[in-house]
Design a protein that fits this description.
4 helices, 41% helix, 3 strands, alpha+beta
Length: 102
């Protein structure tokens, strides 16, 4: 029987995830038609993952029940959002980011 490991959602883990993403060359792109974001896979050069600030389709996020992944860390960095933010803090951070972009 497999036991799930609950991993913590901490600033240190987000920082480490961004470091891995940068070292491994993860890049994020926005699809023009839908506005959705994708992040490159470092294990398969022909694949990309759908990614948002809260969700990613990579194996670590989908099957590992990990609140932190390098693809979301890179997207948050790209959007100039804090790496570690609570769900309640996201709305104000996103609104602030939109005001700065305008």
């Amino acid at each position: 029987m497999l036991r799930r490991i609950s991993r913590p959602d901490t600033p240190a883990r987000w920082s480490a995830a961004l470091g891995r993403a940068r070292r491994e060359g993860v890049s994020v792109r926005q699809l023009t038609a839908s506005g959705a974001w994708i992040a490159t896979s470092t294990s398969d050069p022909h694949s990309a993952y759908e990614v948002s600030v809260y969700r990613c389709t990579c194996k670590a996020a989908e099957f590992g029940d990990d609140p932190v992944c390098k693809h979301r860390a890179m997207l948050r960095y790209h959007l100039r959002l804090p790496l570690h933010i609570s769900a309640s803090g996201m709305a104000s951070a996103a609104a602030s980011n939109l005001r700065q972009a305008a």
